[in-house]
Write a structure and sequence with these properties.
CATH class of the largest domain: Alpha Beta
Shape: elongated
Oligomer: single chain
CATH superfamily of the largest domain: Vaccinia Virus protein VP39
Number of helices: 9
Low-confidence stretches: none
Strand order of the largest sheet: 3-2-1-4-5-7-6
Strand content: 15-25%
CATH topology of the largest domain: Rossmann fold
Distance between the termini: 57 Å
Mean pLDDT: 94
Radius of gyration: 20 Å
Bound molecules: S-adenosylmethionine
Number of strands: 7
CATH architecture of the largest domain: 3-Layer(aba) Sandwich
Number of domains: 2
Largest sheet: 7 strands, mixed
Order of helices and strands: HEHEHEEHEHEEHHHH
Length: about 240
């Protein structure tokens, strides 16, 4: 018999997501693919039951196979469905949607009105357009209560944790783009790395536009925002080290 490890170690991206799942949650991983997240959470005894859903047959087959491999078929229910559509009656408290585009993540939340209830937590890791995800959450009654940046295979990922309370909130454009919590804490090395990448990309955008004689006023304003945050961050590190 193949020996099965008692643990499943996640990469930094999925570890950051897992860290936001609450102890004892009724957890659902939407678009699970390999099901590593629910398997990890059950093996860590953070949750007792979990749901793993995917809209496509092949990823769901992978999930079922891995769940069997770890002998967790009695604890993780794998379902072939679109988003949360098969989960209405299961009392889900914490739902993760990871590794998808920001617009698709928003569409999946939009299609599940029953998750917009007090006590519901969403943990989202968009591959693109994190600002759209933050904007959607704030507009639809979710308070953004946690942010983590994760670096995996040289790529930086935003992991966003949000709790529903029904209140509508607004962020500035910069807060939507970088995450207000990331800006306010402004101390992690990964935030510095994010700013470095933003500064470098923004400089390229400005150069390109200038070569085409386009107006760069708003782009330069955004570059100044990044530089201001970057310099504040560097100063706070220097002060800490003094
Ligand atoms: C790139 S994989 C991400 C897998 C895993 N969540 C992760 O982050 O490592 C995206 C998965 O989402 C699934 N998916 C896409 N749209 C979906 C939807 N509307 N409902 C459920 N699953 C979906 C895809 O079939 C695919 O398996």
């Amino acid at each position: 018999m193949t020996e099965i490890s008692e643990k499943l170690i996640l990469d930094d991206r999925l570890s950051a997501v897992a860290s936001f799942v609450r102890e004892g949650a009724v957890f659902a991983d939407i678009g699970t693919d390999h099901a590593y997240l629910p398997i990890h959470l059950i093996l860590e005894r953070k949750v007792e039951v979990a749901f793993a859903t995917d809209i496509n047959h092949e990823p769901l087959r992978r999930a079922v196979e891995n769940v069997k491999k770890y002998r967790l078929s009695d604890k993780i229910k794998c379902l072939l469905c679109d988003g949360f559509s098969a989960l209405k009656d299961y009392g889900i408290t914490d739902g993760a949607i990871c590794g998808m585009g920001g617009e698709l993540i928003c569409a999946i939340i939009e299609d599940a009105p029953f998750i917009k209830k007090r006590g519901m937590r969403l943990i989202l890791q968009p591959m693109t357009r994190p600002h759209e995800v933050r904007k959607y959450l704030l507009k639809h009654g979710f308070n953004i209560t946690g942010e983590k940046l994760a670096l995996t295979d040289g790529k930086l990922y935003n992991c966003i944790c949000a709790d529903y309370d029904g209140n509508i909130r607004r962020y500035s454009d910069l807060e939507l783009e970088l995450g207000k919590i990331n800006i306010d804490s402004n101390r992690t090395p990964l935030f510095l790395k994010l700013l470095e990448r933003k500064i470098s990309a923004q400089k390229k955008i400005i150069d390109g536009k200038m070569r085409s004689n386009l107006d760069v006023t708003p782009d330069q304003a955004r570059l100044r925002d990044y530089l201001r945050l970057y310099e504040n961050r560097s100063i706070s590190i220097l002060k800490k080290g003094e």
